[in-house]
Amino acid sequence: MKKVLSQLMLVLNAIWLVQPAGPIVSVFYCMSTSPEQQMTLMICAMVIWIVLLVIQLLFIKWVYAPVGQVLEKLENNQSCPDGEIVDAARRNSALAMQATIFYMLMIAAAGLSNFAVYLYYDIGMLSAMSIWGGLIAGGIACPFMVLGAVSLFTGPNTEFISGHLKTES
Known about the structure:
This protein is mainly alpha-helical and 169 residues long. 87% of the residues lie in helices and 0% in strands.
């Protein structure tokens, strides 16, 4: 089931690509800054974006690992205790909501980090506040995409586990 983990990481990465839209609009259209300031602010925004992306992907890998281990055992027809199978089904069912909540936390962290960077470079309060327009829009739309996409990839796992429980009982 490494394929599912790869798909989850790919989808979360693809949806996370939307996040830099807030800083791009904020820096290039909402602020009266010099080209040097724009470059500095965008480099900071991209560093924040990459760091939070890595944290998010590591979180998904960590949360999915127990489910992947059980699924691998089941695919290889190895014995697995019922309690472990039920726990894997529960974890797999909760994965979509966990990923969505963590994604929302990452969007908030990105917004606060960019806001702090803008204030650090003394852009001005009004210009620094411009980051929130894009992040609020992304914070409303993107979590729904994460919830739907992760559910799409974890649903077959739950069905597979449930089928295995039915045949074992």
